[in-house]
Design goal:
alpha/beta, 9-stranded mixed β-sheet, 9 helices
Length: 236
């Protein structure tokens, strides 16, 4: 039996680059698809939000002269490209899946609504929720928090390159120690960069637990679903 019945999985666009400097690494994409297929076959209802940083990041675009609103819109479109790639990989792995978009762009994806997303999840489909919130000035972290709350997920899983939340960046500080559990307030007070403040506040106010784990190690997603303590749980 899986620990959670319905999850929102947040994947980073950067992780999709794998060994590449830019774009999508097909090997990493297929690893993700097979891990998602594995938990879907356990009966877990899976919603997914994926970032776009491997293609375009709106905020960094503004430093290069892009208007912030149009830069963020370009970032939203980057998430749609990644969502289509993941959708294709999932279907190749035999998983029924669909892409919903926060901005109207049929026939690329269907326009998002909570009712449509939940109906698809209950029908056994993996639902990829793309284009962020559809609004500028919001990150895909905030988009995933919003969607997790809307689809009434049991937990928001944040798949990253590191195996949880540490006292400092473990890639820079070898003395950093890992938390098994932490509260939202501790994240604020310690100024830990888990997600942006808007996303963290939304989860805190709506009592949405976040589980941060290493998605890049094959098999870890199933371990989380099986109840193994391999990451960090954030809750009130």
């Amino acid at each position: 039996m899986a620990t959670f019945k319905r999850i929102l999985l947040k994947l980073s666009g950067e992780s999709l680059m794998g060994e590449k400097q830019y774009g999508i690494d097909e090997k990493r994409l297929n690893e993700y698809a097979l891990q998602i297929a594995e938990i879907s076959s356990m009966g877990v209802q899976v919603g997914i939000v994926i970032g776009g940083g491997n293609i375009f990041r709106g905020l960094s675009g503004t430093s290069k002269g892009f208007d912030r609103v149009q830069g963020d819109q370009m970032g939203m479109l980057a998430t749609v490209i990644n969502s289509l790639a993941l959708n294709s990989a999932l279907q190749a792995a035999g998983v029924r899946s669909r892409v919903l978009t926060a901005i109207r762009m049929e026939p690329i994806g269907e326009f998002y609504s909570k009712q449509k997303a939940i109906a698809s999840l209950e029908n056994g489909e993996v639902v990829i929720l793309s284009a962020g919130t559809g609004n500028p000035f919001f990150t895909t972290d905030t988009g995933s928090s919003l969607r997790a709350i809307e689809i009434e997920a049991d937990v928001m899983l944040k798949g990253t390159r590191v195996d949880g939340i540490y006292t400092a960046d473990p890639e820079k500080d070898p003395t950093a120690t890992k938390f098994d559990e932490i509260t939202y307030d501790e994240i604020y007070n310690k100024n830990l960069k888990v997600m942006d403040l808007t996303a963290t506040t939304m989860c805190k106010e709506n009592n949405m637990p976040i589980y941060v784990f290493d998605m890049d190690t094959v098999g870890n997603l199933k371990k989380v679903m099986s109840g193994e303590k391999i990451g960090t749980l954030v809750k009130n």
